[in-house]
Amino acid sequence: MSLSNRSTLTQYLIEQRRRFPSASGDLNALLLEVALACKSIARSVAFGELGGVMGDASVDAAQGGAVNVQGEVQKKLDVLSNDVFVRMNEWAGHLAGMASEEMEQPSQIPAQYPRGKYLLVFDPLDGSSNIDVNVSVGSIFSILRAPDDVIASGRDVVEADFLQPGATQVAAGYALYGPTTMLVLSVGNGVAGFTLHPNLGEFVLTHPDIQVPPDTREFAINASNSRFWEPPVKRYVDECLAGATGPRGKDFNMRWIASMVAEAHRILMRGGVFMYPRDTKDPSKPGRLRLLYEANPIGFIMEQAGGRASTGRQPMLGVVPSSLHQRIGLVFGSRNEVERIERYHHEPVKNDFNTPLFAERSLFRN
Ligand SMILES: O=P(O)(O)OC[C@H]1O[C@](O)(COP(=O)(O)O)[C@@H](O)[C@@H]1O
Ligand SMILES: [Mg+2]
Ligand SMILES: [Mg+2]
């Protein structure tokens, strides 16, 4: 494939930075390190069983599987991907510290390396349940500016340094390890998608200025949780399922990949709405997905692409985080659908749609 009329990721980043002549170039360098980490993970994913990276991570034979701070069993690839992110980003001097789904506490930059002005927060492997069945997985990252006193003093980072609303993100993105490996990112000026050229090993700009269509006929939700949903979510899904004969007056299609990063990508490409809403399944968990390294970076990308991201009740990017591994209800995608779901959360619960006729037709009725 000829590259003559396409930019590489490096060229794209340089062109973006030219718009800010005072920028030091640190952000570009950091993004290229992140992209390199993603390429390395893409290779491991591609080797699959041949690379010995499938299955659960084990502490040792006697103790059994490793468990992360979320209480989730870690896959080998979760651990390997986390190590790749840490090792490939700690040495270059752009970071003040890192935080990850797989690490209970923030990771410090080792003493032998210089410290920089950014914080990197990541989900090294999203969609872990899909690793062993050869379905698309990805990595999600968010870049924040470190607080001024961290930059000035070079002190160790603490949890509070990372508790910044998503609107303050300097850049965010994800890599998708699917039939092709793609990197999708925003540096706060729209969203661009890059495809990994398998021979050159370069990310090549293939999807400039991605825009999420404002309307959709496709939704994604784990329907096995329907008995735990709150009324506004039930109402929204019931109305979609009622299709052309219900209040929406049109048929909807449904998808569930169980890799949020892959769902986000589909929605960026052709619209749709994704919901992992707050529910009553486990009262100790106000949602399944994590604010700092899942909801915020994906939310930033969606908003930059003209879509919307929300808790269901308020814009995601306005939420002030309370802890590093905070969970939250997440709704994102086509703007008009997300706004509708928010509206349903603010309206009093309506019963007129729960007519006996509709009850017969509803698949997900309690
Ligand atoms: O088991 P469920 O309900 O299908 O959950 C799927 C969700 O869990 C996740 O895999 C969570 O991410 P991790 O794999 O990083 O823990 C999301 O990508 C996905 O949306
Ligand atoms: Mg995840
Ligand atoms: Mg993960």
Automatic annotation (TrEMBL):
Mg(2+) 2 binds at residues 123, 126, 294. It catalyses: beta-D-fructose 1,6-bisphosphate + H2O = beta-D-fructose 6-phosphate + phosphate. Pfam families: FBPase (PF00316), FBPase_C (PF18913). It is found in: Cytoplasm. Residues 212-345 form the Fructose-1-6-bisphosphatase class 1 C-terminal domain. GO terms for biological process: fructose 1,6-bisphosphate metabolic process; fructose 6-phosphate metabolic process; fructose metabolic process; gluconeogenesis; sucrose biosynthetic process. One of its GO terms (cellular component) is cytosol. Its EC number is 3.1.3.11. Mg(2+) 1 binds at residues 101, 123, 125. HAMAP family: FBPase_class1. PANTHER family: FRUCTOSE-1,6-BISPHOSPHATASE-RELATED, SEDOHEPTULOSE-1,7-BISPHOSPHATASE, CHLOROPLASTIC. Homotetramer. Belongs to the FBPase class 1 family. This is Fructose-1,6-bisphosphatase class 1. It comes from Sphaerotilus mobilis. The gene is fbp.
